[in-house]
Structures are given as C-alpha cells and as structure tokens.
C-alpha cells in the first residue's frame, strides 16, 4: 500500500475478523474500524472525483463513486494487496475459505483505510486511496454507473411513472458465513432474484437479473428504451 503505520496495533486490529475474537477474548475485531473506513473511503473518493472531473454532473459523480467503493471492488483490491493472507481468522472461518470471501476482504479493506485515517493525516489518507483506487476511478469514469443495476432499475421505473423497485431480503447460515438472498419486485410482480455474501451484493445480483429480463423483453418487442447491448 505504500504506507508504514506509526501505531502497528491499529493495523493488527484492522486485520482481525470477529471470528478470531471468539477464542481470543482480549482481541478487538475490525468492525469499528470498518464502520469508520466506510465513511472515510466515501469522502476520499468523493474528494478525488470532484477535483478530477469538474465537468461531470452530480448524476454521473454519484454512480461513479458507488462503482469505486462497492464491496466487489474493495474485495478485488484486498486480494491484490494480499490482505487475505494476513487476516486473523478462527480455524473454522479459515477452513470455510474465509481468506477469499469477498465480504470479509471488503470489510477488512475498509477497516485498513479507517486505521490509516486514525494513524495518519488526511492528506496521507487521500494519497493512499488515490494510489490504491486511482486506476479504478479512471476506468469507471469512462462509463459511470454501467454496473449499478439498482440505479438503472430505479431510473427505468421512474421514466414510466412506476413505484420504485422493492427488495425483499432473507438470509441463511451462521453469523460468520451468512448468505443473503434478495428478490426485486416492481411493475406488480417479481422480476429478479440474486444471492451474495452481503445485502448490497444480493440486491445488485437481483437487480442485474431483472435488468437481463428487461433486456430480453426489449429484444422480443423491439422496445428502444432498454439498451440490451450493455449487459
């Protein structure tokens, strides 16, 4: 990451999954740092894209930020940095593949950013976010929001004067390995289902499924309002 901690204990906490704390009662999990890092990351990316793209409208800035900070993007970054290798996990979580679970990696990435914020100045934190995510920002800025299917569905319904899509969530599995299921409903019916290791991921998967269904309808009925080529 190109950063050396003045307080290494902050980094250790950021890399401690809650499953580790079950057998190590003196250790604190990374959940509080994750909470902080989520907000720090959102502000840092907002700062960077606001300065870098002065001609971009708010309607483009918002989906660009969402694309950069989404859980899947952060999990990919965590994999690239090798965070999974150094996470502190319980033996059970490790045996179930926890070092490669996107939800755990994304949470750890946010926690590390929260730890850097506490350990460093804002300028150092901003520089680190730029080093880690600058290339992804530049790539996503070429077509902001393309993969944000929830936003696309919401805009689709709004154009037709329909009620916004509604997501019904359920979950299964133990706390350390939860799986979430989402069903998206609009136009008076169920339009898509999806699963993921987080609620957001499940909702995006359901929205993507619904968008694929709309695209298929557009091909059948030659409706120009849905661009099927962007799936």
Summarize this structure briefly.
With 231 residues, the protein is mainly α. 60% of the residues lie in helices and 10% in strands. It has helices at residues 8-14, 18-23, 31-52, 58-69, 71-81, 83-86, 91-95, 102-119, 122-140, 149-159, 199-221; strands at residues 166-172, 179-186, 189-196.
Can you describe what's shown?
The protein is built from 11 helices and 3 strands. With about 230 residues, the chain is mostly helical. The chain has a 3-stranded antiparallel beta sheet with strand order 1-2-3, with helices on one face. The protein is flat.
Furnish the topology, listing elements before pairings.
Blueprint: H1 8-14, H2 18-23, H3 31-52, H4 58-69, H5 71-81, H6 83-86, H7 91-95, H8 102-119, H9 122-140, H10 149-159, E1 166-172, E2 179-186, E3 189-196, H11 199-221
Antiparallel strand pairs: 1-2, 2-3
Radius of gyration: 19 Å
**Global morphology:** flat
Proportion of helical residues: 55-70%
* Unreliable stretches covering 5 or more consecutive residues: none
Strand fraction equals 5-15%
Please provide the ordered H/E string of secondary-structure elements: HHHHHHHHHHEEEH
Helical/strand content category: mainly alpha
Termini gap: 33 Å
Which strand order do you get reading across the main beta sheet? Answer: 1-2-3
Largest sheet: 3 strands, antiparallel
Give the overall pLDDT as a whole number. 86
Count of helices?
A: 11
Work out the number of β strands: 3
Protein traits:
231 residues, 3 strands, three-stranded antiparallel sheet, mainly alpha, single chain
